[in-house]
Task: structure prediction
Amino acid sequence: MARQRRVLKTIGFIVLLGLTAIFLYGGFAFLKNFGGSKLVATALAIVWGLGSVALLYFVLNRMAESLPRRARALAVPLVFAGPALLILTWFLVLPTLRTLWLSFFDETSMHFVGLRNYAFAFTNRIMLDAFRNNLLWVVFGTLACVGMGLVIAVLADRSRGEKVYKAIIFMPMAISFVGAGVIWMFMYSYKGVGSGIQQIGLLNAVVVALGGKPQAWLLLPVWNNFLLIAIMVWLQTGFAMVILSSAIKAIPGEMLEAARIDGATEFQIFFRIIIPAIQGSLVTVTTTIVIFSLKLFDIVRVMTGGNYGTNVIANEFYMEQFTYGQTGRASAIAIVLLVAVVPIMIYNLRQFAERRAFK
Amino acid sequence: MKKPGSIPGQKSRRSLLVNLVLVLICLAWLLPTVGVLVTSFRLPSDIFNSGWWTVFPHRSWVNAGEVRIDPSVDVNGPMTIDGKTATFEEWRNGVEISHDRRLQWYGNKRTRLLIEQDLRWVGFNADLNLDNYKGVLTGGTVTYKDGNGNTITRLGNNFGDAVMNSIAVAVPATVIPILIAAFAAYAFAWMEFPGRKTFFVLVVALLVVPLQIALIPVLRDFTRLKLNGTFLAMWLAHTGFGLPLAVYLLFNYISQLPREIFESAFMDGATPFTVFVRLVIPLSVPALASFAIFQFLWVWNDYLVALIFLGDKNRVVTSALAAMVGEKGQDWHYLTSGAFLSMIIPLMVFFALQRYFVRGLMAGSVKG
Result:
């Protein structure tokens, strides 16, 4: 009897799995060839995508739960954590190894070339320029974001309109790099010189009003890098400000009060009390923005395409792979990017081990 | 003992200074966006001829009439016109007759013509309309008049479809990783299985991995599976790249839930699945919301992943806007309205749910 029931159950699950597969694949095939209105297609795609994931978990869990006790103790966690681990393996772990592998081969990925791609990455003129520019991004971009964020956080803490000020500084966080690129391209736009020509870019209009000569800013070597960095500062200062502001608010009020009673000036309070107290948050914000500026791509891609001396590593990665078809070189560049963030990765792991969040 | 800074006058002066600095910074932060917003409503010819700030009321020289010079006047020496004496070069640069009236020579010496200009308040009747938005949203052809009065015909940018595509990409690419990560975070926090700790350390390590490392191999897989250009490819890719942060954030939250509620539920015979659906998900709504906003903004604003896996088929707003920069770099009326269209939805999400977003940022400021 029991055996018969188990056989029936197994058949039932096979049917269920089959139906799930049909829903998953059928939906995909249907949507791919769907010719109806965009609105309907969008709605269907969303329903199908979310439905498939929910259905998969439900069916798999049902199967795991029906197993005998000992197998179940292993199968249930597998159903819960398995999909996440599978996807992480497919999209991050294996690709890292595969990219490392590819970085030792030429553009056809067939012939082993040893370290030639790395030699390219560290000696080619274009790459060296990209490294220099990335260094500018990392140093000046990070300094400006953290510095501005800190100043605004401290000042806003002492004013009544704190919420409004912070919301305004924070707002660009919601804007895409491409959108920000357009916004700032318009700020920097240049219309040539001549009588009767009115500059329509704000920067040139200000320069003219102050008696200067209008410039094609994005074509000015070296300085154009700083104008691009300004865009990142505009986008990311809000992030630094929010994190630092909440760290400042966590400083006990008595500490500041006691310092003031002892006659400390505001500057002494800032450097001797506030800065040491928010050290942890400063490190977090700095590392996040450093990583960010290391892999920066969109701003440069949209604004200059990496021309006029503004190339960066991530853009050169894109160019090597998708413009020149140099897979080996592109892979080597990606590995260089990864190695650059390894110290931060180790720091994170150490912090994590210290916190003992994982029992 | 006197406390420094306790004198009322000094204190209010200091707070005035603080507010002044903040107002100036905020103004600088707002101006670029305001400029684009204003420009997106202006006529193409106006955009080309004058800065966007001229739509605000301001005093400016306005042509009021002409003055002809008698042929007997020697144009090479100093000339007296309306009581002012100046050389030709000075007249050419414009001479102020009174504080609100000036004369400027038009063209070369032979024209013998001066333009009379009055200083007047202008900018009350700026021509603002929604035509640029119509032109950007449509997929058909559009025409407009440029700065020199020529009529120009262009192919529309089909931004309407791009917005739809962005929604179709961003909604599942937000919900799917949350669902998968919540299941995994629950398993990591409350279940026993071999390799639990090792796998979680891996998740923490993957937090900062730059996604460039994965693009080439994943693109190869997608090509083999014929997934390129489909929404499914985008969902999978964004799920993969967003998962480490999602698992990490949700683990931090779910592992802090009180043990007792699970114990009593299991006592009543609940399975892990029902505990997850009935207890964990409802109790974790704040953490889920934080990550949801984070991921939604990230996916909506992403350009690199869309550029590589979606290509020109099913363009999302960022790639549509970037393509527009390439094709119509000087068509500011379309660029600005396109930029604004791409910002509306994320800005709405952002302002409506700012509180959750900030919380998510604080918990997850390790994302790479």
